[in-house]
Structure formats: C-alpha cells, structure tokens
Amino acid sequence: MSISRAALLLTASALTVALNACAAGTDEPTATEPVAEPPACHKEHLPTLEPGVLTLATKPIAVNPWYINNQPENGQGYESAVAYAVAEKLGYNRSEVRWIRTEFTDTIAPGDKPFDLNLSEVTITEERRQAVDFSSGYYNPTHAFLTTAQSPAAGITTRDELSGVRLGARTGTTNHQTAVRLSGEYPAIEFATDEEGREALLNGDIDVLVLDLRTAFSTQLELPGSVIIGQLEPEPGNSEQYGIVLAKDSPLTDCVSQAVDELGDNGDLFRLQKEWLAGPGAAPFLP
C-alpha cells in the first residue's frame, strides 16, 4: 500500500469516528408531525356562555314527540335527538351539554339569552329575525286541526267550515296566526301553552285546537276520543321551518347552521324524523 493511500484511509477513518462522536454528543429533539388545528366550527373555537360547555334550552314542559317524558337530556324525541346531533357536529360529547328551560316568549324576545341554542318548535319568521338569530331549518311543519268526537267540528271536511266553529291556539305562534286567519263567526282564542289549549278542548271551551301536524298526532294519542280533522296544504312560497334559536348576532349561528345543513344533506334529519315523528293514521288535506 502506498503512503498516500494509507494516509487517505486513515483520514477517512478519523473523520468517521469524529462524526460519530459528534452525533453521540448531540441532544437535539427529533422532528415530529405538527398537531392538526381543530376546525373553525369546533368547540375549541366556539365562544359559548360557559367555555367547553354547550348550553341548550327548551320549553318548561317539553312534550312528545319532540322530547320524550319531558326529559330533554335523555336524547329521546326529535328535537332532543337533533340537539345532540348538532352538539356532536360541533365537537361536544354528552357530558359537555347542559339543559335549561325558558318560556316561549322569553326565547323569541330581544336581549341576552341564558342559552347558546334553543330548540322549542320555533317557526322562522322575518319578524322574529329582528330579535333573535335562527339556524337553518331542521323541520318543515304543517298546520293541523284537532277536535273531539262529540264536537260540532268533528264532521268538518273543508277549511271554509272552520269559520263556523271556535278555534284556539298557543299565543305568539303561527298556529295562532292561522286560527285568526281562518276564524269567522267566533274570534280565535289564545292560550299561554298547548296544554291549556288541550284542557279547553276537553272542557268544550273551544271546538278546534290548531297545532302543527306532528304535535296533533302525539296529542291525539294522549287525548282519548280526539280526532284530527285534517291539515292545510303547504302554500306556495310560504314553506315554514323550525329553526334553532340563538341570541341576535350570535357568533355561533353560522356554525350551527352548517351543522344542521350537514345533518340534512347526509340524511340524518330525515332518519330522525322517521324515528320520532311517525304518527298513527293520516290527516287529509282540507280543500
């Protein structure tokens, strides 16, 4: 072996040893994959009333089929199921959801709210939009007419005949607006709650209670001898929808609407309607 070649090998060997020594003495951290940032519409970014908690609300008395056994926290009933589905879309698990109760008039009144979201069968209207925010619609209601077998209204087959009987509905609702519009001989009677309306119907104080169709079905099951006369056909350009209520200009509105839209697009809303809003029989359209 020549001297130059031996020197070259020795130099290479020494360099290798030196590099290994440097590597052994270096205590630098290894590179890691960056942690993905939660999406904008995730609980980590949502300014709820209580950080990390989603406060939901409904009426003082929540009835079937919207809430089963007046227990919104059990996830049973259409609105309870929708509420938890929306919460899940926003990243909340059930332990991070709490429920409160609010009066209907307080729900749609202007001002601060003690809830983040409220699901109380509230129809979206432009007038109400002046006071509160609404999500995208999660249900399209129709108006139905409930009576008793002994009532003079039991034989009604057309909407015009409704003008000759006493109609009643819960105040502040589109059901009441419909009752006022269809009343003739007798002025429409308003009640603070649907439960008061049921009592009035059973006591003969009114002949017909105006309800949304699904509530009419559930009420029919609860009131022996009650009869659904029929329902109104949807009016062109006047498709009503229930929306989730939020405080006016809430920073959560867009994210909640996005969650509702996703539930509609993937078929979850339809599935939940079939599960919780199936009623016995049918209600004919009143010409």
From TrEMBL:
The Solute-binding protein family 3/N-terminal domain, residue ranges: 53-280
Is the Signal keyword given for this protein? yes
Q: In the UniProt record, does the keyword Signal occur?
A: yes
Q: Specify the superkingdom.
A: Bacteria
* Entry keyword set: Signal
What are the GO cellular component annotations?
Answer: membrane
For this protein, the record's CDD domains field holds: PBP2_peptides_like
Enumerate the PANTHER family for this protein.
Answer: ARGININE-BINDING EXTRACELLULAR PROTEIN ARTP, MEMBRANE-BOUND LYTIC MUREIN TRANSGLYCOSYLASE F
Give the protein's recorded name: Family 3 extracellular solute-binding protein
Q: What is the lineage of its organism?
A: Bacteria, Bacillati, Actinomycetota, Actinomycetes, Mycobacteriales
